[in-house]
């Protein structure tokens, strides 16, 4: 029986893919057997999903076969859905079997955080996967087609809950797409409403106020109606209840109000806060030196004591450090502390528009939009080199 340690990576998101790729560089021959488990045989770029959801880009730009990203002589890919994580038994239970491990990396993506709002999990659509954005895109067009048959006004109202990055970027693409769809379906665009509802006192909470004001002005010119500082109290089949009982009729509600850690984490017995595990400086779960948690299900505090937001760049950086720490653990060497390096933040506002903060610089408009493209191209280069940039990159 082989004594080679078994490393299992669960999830092929930003953190999981970077962990697998870095392990390929770090580990020597037969130093460990590495297995990557993922529900699909592709990796998808989560930060692109708002575009195919609105219909302004194809799904193919957001999806990459995992076989193109890993060396299958060094990393085994298992396509399967994880049903249970059993830390005491050191086992991962899949729909059609199980895998044992010596070291585990949990890189499972998060789940929508509905904050207990009644009906939100039942009636709202969410941007969370390739299949979910395909559904949103088809649903939007279907509502316009139905309106031409039954004239129901709610079919022309599109409510987006949440004005964080995901919400704002989706709204921007939707505002670009709907005038084209209105023309295609012979509908007066002035009858269509895009309504953004945010409970916080500002859109893009935590972002620079000057850039928030610019972003809202851009989107208002595109026809977006903001309802800021007003919570959604209930989601219904035909709309939402907001504020003190006002009903907004809508046959389309897209919820982008937040994410929590994957439900499998809590079921596995880890102590969680909103589904996320407060990991140590080396990315390990408390009390489990052989289990690393990265990405959406991990919780790390910044120097001010506030949680880092679960972003792509932090998951990528965690993946690289996680792989280095796995190699160090195998060799009984000193582990590397994770220190987040903020490369900046960019929010797209649709075609030719964006806002960004890089260091102390505030950037907006066309220049910020080009920066957004550079950020996307950089990620493609990191995981797949120039060939992937040329195949999947958006240059125009």
From TrEMBL:
One Pfam entry name: Pyr_redox_2
Entry cofactors: FAD
Claim: Flavoprotein is one of the keywords in the record: yes
Keywords noted in UniProt: FAD, Flavoprotein, Oxidoreductase
Keyword Flavoprotein included in the entry's annotation: yes
FAD/NAD(P)-binding domain location: 6-319
Protein family: Belongs to the NADH dehydrogenase family.
Protein name: NADH dehydrogenase
């Amino acid at each position: 029986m082989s004594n080679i340690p078994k490393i299992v990576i669960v999830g092929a998101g930003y953190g999981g893919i970077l962990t697998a790729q870095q392990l390929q560089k770090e580990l020597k021959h037969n130093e460990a057997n590495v297995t990557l488990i993922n529900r699909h045989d592709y990796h998808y770029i989560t930060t692109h999903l708002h575009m195919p959801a609105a219909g302004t880009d194809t799904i193919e730009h957001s999806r990459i076969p995992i076989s193109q990203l890993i060396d299958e002589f060094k990393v085994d890919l298992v396509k399967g859905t994880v049903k249970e994580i059993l830390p005491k038994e050191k086992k991962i239970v899949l729909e059609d079997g199980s895998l044992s491990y010596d070291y585990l990396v949990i890189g499972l993506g998060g789940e929508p955080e509905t904050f207990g709002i009644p009906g939100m999990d039942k009636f709202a659509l969410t941007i969370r996967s390739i299949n979910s954005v395909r559904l949103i895109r088809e649903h939007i067009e279907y509502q316009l087609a139905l309106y031409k048959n039954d004239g129901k006004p709610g079919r022309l109202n599109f409510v987006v809950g949440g004005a964080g990055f995901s919400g704002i970027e989706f709204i921007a693409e939707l505002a670009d797409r709907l005038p084209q769809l209105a023309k295609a379906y012979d509908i007066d665009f002035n009858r269509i409403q895009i309504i953004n509802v945010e409970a916080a006192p500002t859109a893009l909470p935590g972002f620079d106020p000057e850039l928030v004001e610019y972003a809202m002005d851009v989107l208002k010119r595109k026809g977006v109606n903001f309802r800021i500082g007003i919570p959604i109290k209930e989601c219904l089949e035909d709309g939402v209840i907001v504020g003190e009982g006002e009903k907004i009729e809508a046959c389309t509600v897209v919820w982008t109000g937040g994410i929590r850690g994957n439900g499998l984490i809590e079921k596995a017995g880890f102590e969680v806060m909103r589904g996320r595990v407060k990991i140590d400086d080396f990315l390990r779960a408390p009390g489990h030196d052989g289990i690393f948690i990265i990405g959406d299900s991990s919780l790390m505090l910044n120097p001010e004591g506030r949680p880092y937001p679960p972003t792509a760049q932090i998951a990528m950086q965690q993946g690289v450090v996680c792989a280095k720490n796995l190699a160090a653990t195998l060799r009984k060497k000193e582990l590397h502390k994770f220190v987040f390096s903020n490369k900046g933040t960019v929010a797209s506002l649709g075609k030719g528009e964006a806002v960004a903060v890089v260091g102390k610089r505030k950037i907006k408009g066309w220049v910020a939009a080009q920066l957004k493209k550079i950020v996307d191209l950089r990620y493609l280069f990191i995981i797949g080199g120039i060939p992937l940039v040329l195949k999947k990159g958006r240059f125009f």
